[in-house]
Amino acid sequence: MSKAIIKIEDLKREFTMGSETVRALKGISFDIKEGEFVTIMGSSGSGKSTMLNILGCLDQPTSGNYEIDGVKVKDLTKNQLATIRNEKIGFIFQSYNLLARTSAIENVELPLLYNSKVSTEERRKRAIEALQKVGLGERLDHTPSQLSGGQQQRVAIARSLVNNPVMLLADEATGNLDTRTAYEIMSIFQELNEQGITIAFVTHEEDIATFSSRTIVLKDGNIIQDYKNENVQSAKEELAKLPKQDD
Amino acid sequence: MRILNLFKIAFKAIVLNKMRTLLTMLGIIIGVASVIAMLAIGEGSKESIRENISSMGSNIITIRPASASSSGVRASGDEMQTLTLKDYEAVKDQATFLSYATPLVTGKGQVINGSNNWPSNIYGVNPDYLKIKVVDLQSGSMFTDAEVKTASKVALIGQTVVDNVFPDGQDPIGQMIRFNNIPFTVIGVLEVKGENTFGQDQDDVVIAPYTTVQKRILAIDYINQIMASAVSEDDAPNAVTEVSEIMRLQHQISNPNNDDFSVQSMEELISTFSSTSEMLTVLLVAVASISLLIGGIGIMNIMYVSVKERTKEIGLRMAVGAKGADILMQFLIEAILISVTGGALGVLLGLTSTVFIEKFLNWPTSVAMYSIVISFAVCAITGIFFGWYPARKASALDPITALRYE
Ligand SMILES: Nc1ncnc2c1ncn2[C@@H]1O[C@H](COP(=O)(O)OP(=O)(O)O)[C@@H](O)[C@H]1O
Ligand SMILES: [Mg+2]
Q: How many CB pairs under 8 A join A and B?
């Protein structure tokens, strides 16, 4: 049996806005094992992003336990959290969040800038490798404005990979993309997963969920479904089945 | 994180916003440049005043008639006839802090040599005059006490007079000139002294025994001034007090407010002038410092805008592993880079404009090393001071709040 990368127990997150309290997560527990590809589904406002942000150590739970790669997150200082985000987690956003007017390679190098163990030459080498992995080996010096949405998301994926994280977290990573590009991105995620990277992928699109091995469904801050997907589709094959674009 | 990487990030941010950075720097540039130029002007004028006045004889003491400050009507000192040879003698005999003294009578007139003539001033003095004024002779010799006693018609002339009444370059010594139609034999030529602080040509003079000038030219028996020299520069204030007391006795004045004379030392004059120029310098520097402060506020302003604008970027940097300290340093370095670069450009501009001021306005300037060091230090401190708060704010951001910021 493979080890659990993520363990959460009775996780709650409440937001206080004036006199009102929004209970975004109402006590969630699950594990994600090494090598899993988990889709987190649910309608808008069900708490998906809130949960992913906590998993990514960008946000702190109101109560409950969270362990990543054997580290109890609750006991960590701000700086230690930054180190976890730097070394263990690769985060991918819906809106790419690349630095404007900054080349692809520099964007990908960014996490390594904050890792003092990596030298300048090593940094460059790893950034190039990461960009090659997502098929952008030819676009190292392009800035975001010179890249399509799909290409920008690939740069973002390369950035999340560059520090060899134990886990990729993606929040609606295909949300801004057309179906074709979305499937291309999904095939990259599938490839990465086959190479052994654990992935948690937030989406509200049913078809995207068919590419993962497990689906967790949230509703109003509770898990209402958590099931293994016996029939994982290949994004590459689905991509081939799509009608050819004629623009 | 390596500090070099932070420098790279900050540098990149600056390069990406060249125009804005330049405009922000402008405040600092102007501030520093004006501090340096102002100090150079102030320092330069102080130095030149000191030099000039010292060259006129730094322990000179002058006694002039003056209207009593308590009396209603004030007469100009020049027109007053209250100073006499008796006063001179009393001062000369009684004062212990004086080494030399001479009566001084002055008149204006025309110097004539054949067909050449020139309007000049005549100073009637005794032989000590040269020692008091620290003037040497180019040629010839000073008149003697005996010549004073007999009111001899002998004179010494300055270079300007020589140039104008002996244009052919002949030796003036032994020649006859006329001053207001009174013939004088030239017995000496004064060394060249140039202009004094007040722009007077010190070489445009004729010097003759005071008795001669009194009797033959001005037809007066009073004197215009007593000029003396203190034993030393340090004793000048004592000499002033002593001479004032002697004069009061002479004129039977008990209340110093009723003095009908004024005693002034060159030292006083120097400090009066330097203190005015010092005050001016302080004022100029104050104005310049304000512009430096405004420059600093400009930096703070732009750093605030920068932090606000890049909130999302800060969120992203934190999401990929930047610590609060990394963000703090990034923005602090950016602020310091702006202010120090601005400071360096300001020093350059300050030095260049100082050179221009010296060259084209002919103002004496003297760049003080300390002004460069101080304004540079002030710049760096300004950067840290005004950059700190916005940088601090950026570093305290919550990653998820920053990422969500629109
Ligand atoms: N910073 C916040 N302050 C207040 N309420 C929030 C905040 N973030 C999320 N919420 C609330 O929590 C709930 C879940 O939000 P979210 O996790 O973003 O949903 P999803 O990503 O599934 O669409 C929503 O009701 C949302 O309004
Ligand atoms: Mg969401």
A: 60
